[in-house]
Amino acid sequence: MKPRKGSHSVFSVRLHFVFLTHYRRKVITAQMMERLREMIWQVCRKLECELIEFSGESDHVHILLDFHPQNSISAVAGCLKSSIARTMKKDLPEPVNKFYKSEVSFWSNSCYVASSGALLDFV
């Protein structure tokens, strides 16, 4: 991907997020995975980030996005986790409620974030 331009900057910041389900329970189904992709894309658009890649398994998801530097990493992680959890509980309550009571969060409190990028031949 090419670097993006802001009003006073040019940037290319890629972040890899990994979110785990609470208690690492195997909650995420194939149907939920498709819905997750849509939700993540919508949240990224609101935050002026670009979703590059998304994948996951029944107990975690990987999100690679092009990050806009006007945001903080913790704000993006929090917004993604809260928006997704709220929508999952509303749109797909049966699989979620099967594993979690209403007061238990969908995601684990922690997350993994790493910057990623290609090696440059010169700086």
What can you see in these coordinates?
There is one protein chain. The chain is 35% helix and 32% strand. Strands 4-5-3-6 form a 4-stranded antiparallel beta sheet, covered by helices on one side. With 123 residues, the chain is of the alpha+beta class. The longest helix is centred in the middle third of the chain and has 19 residues, at 73-91. The chain contains 3 helices and 6 strands, in the order βββαββααβ. The protein is elongated. One of its GO terms (biological process) is DNA transposition. InterPro entries: Transposase_17, Transposase_17_sf. This is IS200/IS605 family transposase. GO terms for molecular function: DNA binding; transposase activity.
Summary keywords:
DNA binding; 3 helices; 123 residues; 35% helix; alpha+beta; elongated; two-stranded antiparallel ribbon; IS200/IS605 family transposase; Alpha-Beta Plaits
- Overall tally of domains: 1
Strand pairing plus helix content: what structural class?
A: alpha+beta
Question: What is the overall pLDDT average?
Answer: 88
Q: Helix-strand pattern, N to C?
A: EEEHEEHHE
| Biggest sheet, spatial arrangement of strands | 4-5-3-6
Domain Transposase IS200-like: 10-123
GO molecular function, one term: transposase activity
Organism: Microcystis aeruginosa BLCC-F108
Pfam families: Y1_Tnp (PF01797)
